[in-house]
Write a structure and sequence with these properties.
The complex is a heterodimer of chains A (151) and B (100). Helix content of chain A is 44%, strand content 28%. Chain B has 100 residues and is an alpha+beta fold. The chains are: A alpha+beta (151), B alpha+beta (100).
Chain lengths: 151, 100
């Protein structure tokens, strides 16, 4: 996971135990806990369910927190959209796309380099794997969806 | 104004002496007095935290309550649909407005 301007991060579990800490101050986890608890309290007072995340922008460094993970970045290099939102792959869709891609390559190979498919006419031997290839090439990129909140 | 470039923009408010005044967009249905008190308090807390964490001077902050994104910088409070927005545009708009 490459994040622009990345300096360090910390991950915590539901009980605020630090699970992973890279290159950030000892104090950070405590500060996060305080902010999230305060934010959730404010959210409820204002009629919302909860605070889903927050970010702080400093003149040198910035911080974004969501879903148990905080990332510290250099302000001048930060990509804020990237910090808040990330891409996820629909795994089943991706796996099926890759399986079809592999199948089409195998069929190409069997159709032209081996005698196994000689029973079929030459053109269907070309059409079938080509169709599979096209389907897989549509499926693989479209398995990438957006807007799952990062962190 | 400059904030129009933000996708999913719902409203822009200004923090003033007595509370918050709408600059553009829809009415945000929350207790604005409470919200402005929270935002001011959070700003002060954030300034301290930024110092402790060696982040430099606090320029602004954002919080996402359910699906409502609230970004604060200078005296402006920007409300966005957190799912539809682009946070780079939020920042770009702020910088544009601040530079005016």
């Amino acid at each position: 996971m490459k994040i622009k301007g990345y300096l360090g991060h910390v991950k915590v579990d539901e009980k605020w135990n630090v699970v992973e800490k890279v290159n950030v101050s000892e104090e950070l986890a405590g500060i996060l806990k305080f902010n999230v608890e305060k934010g959730n309290e404010e959210a409820r007072e204002l009629g919302f369910k909860r605070m889903n995340g927050f970010a702080m922008m400093g003149s040198k460094k910035s911080l974004a927190f969501m879903k148990g993970e905080a990332i510290m970045v250099e302000t001048s290099k930060a990509d804020w959209q990237e910090l808040f939102v990330h891409y996820v792959y629909m795994k089943g869709w991706l796996a099926l796309g890759i399986a079809l891609l592999v199948l089409s390559v195998v069929l190409y190979y069997m159709g032209f380099a081996t005698p196994y498919l000689d029973y079929f006419a030459p053109l269907p031997r070309l059409y079938l794997p080509t169709i599979l290839l096209l389907i897989s090439l549509i499926m693989i990129p479209s398995s990438k969806t957006r807007y799952t909140y990062r962190l | 104004m400059g904030f129009e470039i933000i996708p999913g923009l719902r409203a822009v408010y200004r923090i003033e002496e007595g509370g918050m005044r709408k600059v553009m967009g829809e009415d945000i249905n929350v207790d604005l007095n409470k919200l402005s008190a929270f935002l001011k308090e959070n700003y002060r807390i954030g300034e301290d935290e930024a110092k402790k964490l060696d982040m430099g001077e606090l320029l602004g902050f954002a919080m996402i309550l359910d699906n409502l994104g609230i970004a604060v910088m200078g005296n402006y409070v920007v409300f966005v649909d957190a799912v539809k927005t682009n946070w780079n545009k939020v920042l770009e708009a702020f910088q544009g407005v601040m530079a005016q």
